[in-house]
Every structure is written in structure tokens, then in C-alpha cells.
Amino acid sequence: MTDDRRTGYDGTGEGAITPDGCAVEVWSRLPAGNAPDVIEAAVPPGAHILELGCGVGRMTHPLTDRGFTVTAVDESAEMLARVRGDVRTVHSPIEQLDLGERFDVVMLASFLVHAGDVTVRQGLLETCRRHVAEDGCVLVQREGEDWHLTVPRETAIGPGAWSRLVSATPVGDGVNSVRCEYEFPDGVWTQTFLSRPLSTEVFEQALAEAGLTVEHYLTEDRTWVRARPSERVPAQASEQAGERASE
Question: Which residue, among 176, 197, 210, 193, has the nearest Cα to 244 in the 3D structure?
Fold first, then answer.
């Protein structure tokens, strides 16, 4: 277990736990779902993808299998050790990343855009903008609009295996402390993390502050979004958006 856990983030269970409370073993078992299909349909064939927060390669591997070139970034060395095949891996916090390169596609999945700290959220989006080609795109995965409201709930993730959203408790400043549980036949893992629900307006404004414009919501539930590079919003508008986000 790591000893550099972020405040408000925790995890339990066998094996390594990352700074944001993720159990490496759990993420090695979670299915990718339809995400690879959504991504493949939204970007050019064979595109070079910068995957921010790749984890163990849950989406990296199906994307490389489909002919994409992936540069996979994660702050956890234990996660990156599980990425296999001919994949370039980079060990770094996302908000500090500066490869000096541009990519056809930059991907920010796993609800990372909902970081509890607004400064961290903007750092993540600015990393996306810094690395996307001017004719490229950024794919962002959002939480469902009722994600914090329909609690508790559970989802089957395999034979005898369940993912449960146990609670989403307000802790102030528009942030919830979220507790998840993952049950498998051979063990139970938990994760606690901070998440800031974002209305569509605040989400799109956050992208605009980083120099990105929403082009298209890719799924019916609006959880996957394709954005394009744009000009940043004026400083005054950015400050007003920050005030709305913290309400």
C-alpha cells in the first residue's frame, strides 16, 4: 500500500492501492464495457492516442488491438506495470505532464474530469489542450447526470462479481465523498474518493477555460464527449465560471 494517499481518498483490499484510492487488482479485473467501441467510432482509424490515467490498460489493450497507437500515462507505477504489449508508458501525474508532443487524440476517461479540486480539474484539461494537435480531438468521459442521486446501486461485472456505489455524501463546496465497493468470489475491495458533480453548463465552461470546445456528445447518456481545440475564454468569464463551479 502506498503512503502518499491524497486527502479524502482511500482504498482497502489486497495488493497495491494508488494515491487516489484505486486497488490495482480491481482495475485489472474490471471490464472495459463499450468504451472501446465509442472511442473507435469517434476518431480516425490508426490514430495516435494519448491516454491520460490509463491504469492497468483496461482500455489501452483493446485500442491497440484495433490498430491504434497508444501512449499511456499514469501516476501509479504499479498500474503501469500491468500494461502489456508494444505500448509506450509514461509515469507522471497528469496535471504535471508536458511531453512536448501533440497527438491526434487525447483521452481523459474514468470520470477524472470530476476531480474535487477545481485547480486539479483545470490542470487535467490544460494537459489535454497542451497535447492535442490543432486538428485533433479530446475525448472526455463524464459521470451520468444522475450518478450521485441514484444511490446505492450495484452492477454485475462478472460471474459472482459486483460493483456497488454505496454512498455519495456531500462534504462541502459542491463536492461529494463517494464510496464504492467491489466484490469478487475471492475478495472485497473498497475505494473512497472526492467527486464534484458538474452540470452541462459548468462542464462546458471548464473546457472553454482550458481552450476546448464541445463538438459532440457521443453517447445517448452524454457521458462521452468529443471536444476540439479553441481559444481560451477571457479571464473575467473564467473567474465567473469558477465561482459557479464552487456554488
Answer: 197
pLDDT tens for each residue of 122-138: 999 999 999 999 999 99
Contact 48, 56 (CB under 8 A): no
Domain boundaries, the chain: 1-23+146-197, 31-142+198-245
Thinking of the domain 31-142+198-245, which architecture would CATH place it in? 3-Layer(aba) Sandwich (3.40)
Nearest to 26 by CA among 92, 86, 79, 102: 79
Whole-angstrom distance, CA of residue 95 vs CA of residue 124: 5
Checking DSSP bridges between strand 103-108 and strand 153-158, what pairing results, if any?
unpaired
Residue 22's nearest CA partner among 144, 138, 85, 112 is 112
* Closest alpha carbon to 123 in 162, 164, 90, 95: 95
Cβ proximity of 72 and 90 under 8 Å: yes
**Looking at the DSSP assignment, which residues form a beta bridge with residue 227?**
138, 214
d(CA 25, CA 13): 9
Backbone angles phi, psi at 61, to 5 degrees: -65, -50
pLDDT band at 245 (very low <50, low <70, confident <90, very high): very low
